[in-house]
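2024-03-11 09:14:02 INFO worker-7 job=invfold-0412 stage=load source=structure_tokens
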């Protein structure tokens, strides 16, 4: 496969072989990723290799779901970062949302949530607009993923890639001569 990685979670049942389950039982139901157990149901994409700077995004169908970055390991050894809609940005230890890095309790149902990590800076975007950021350098590498918390969270139209996925074209660039003329 090649990046960007995408999944629309079509169908019902287990996730495709392109996913590694970190914790819980994430699965597909009526074309969305759902959490099937009362835990953090999280998986990461294993069909491609991700650079350290990466992003993950998805359409939030119901709260308590979201994208994840720098995920690795399974069960008690799982680690990474996840945005959980209507809760915040979390550091995952043992595949559980153990440390809240940044609270964000606003519902984003029906919107695309994007979690970006560049260096140690985690940034949250909703429908393309910057919301907030927090720094944590605990995990240097891993893969992009997706989650549904408890049995309530559901996510659709997932995408991930290397880099930030933030378009900066159109930003003014001034040369030294232009600055002097101003």
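2024-03-11 09:14:09 INFO worker-7 stage=emit residues=182
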């Amino acid at each position: 496969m090649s990046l960007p990685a995408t999944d629309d979670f079509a169908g019902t049942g287990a996730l495709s072989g392109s996913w590694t389950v970190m914790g819980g039982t994430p699965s597909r139901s009526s074309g969305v990723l759902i959490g099937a157990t009362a835990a953090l149901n999280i998986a990461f994409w294993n069909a491609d290799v991700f650079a350290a700077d990466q992003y993950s995004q998805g359409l939030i169908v119901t709260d308590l779901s979201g994208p994840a970055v720098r995920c690795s390991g399974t069960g008690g050894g799982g680690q990474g970062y996840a945005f959980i809609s209507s809760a915040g940005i979390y550091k995952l230890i043992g595949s559980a949302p153990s440390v809240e890095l940044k609270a964000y309790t606003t519902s984003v149902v029906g919107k695309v949530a994007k979690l970006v990590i560049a260096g140690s800076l985690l940034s949250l975007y909703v429908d393309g607009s910057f919301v907030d950021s927090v720094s944590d350098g605990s995990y240097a590498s891993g893969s992009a993923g997706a989650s549904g918390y408890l049995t309530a969270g559901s996510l659709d139209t997932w995408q991930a890639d290397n880099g930030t996925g933030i378009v900066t074209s159109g930003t003014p660039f001034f040369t030294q001569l232009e600055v002097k003329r101003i």
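2024-03-11 09:14:09 INFO worker-7 stage=report msg="Residues 168-182 have pLDDT under 50 and may be disordered."
2024-03-11 09:14:10 INFO worker-7 job finished
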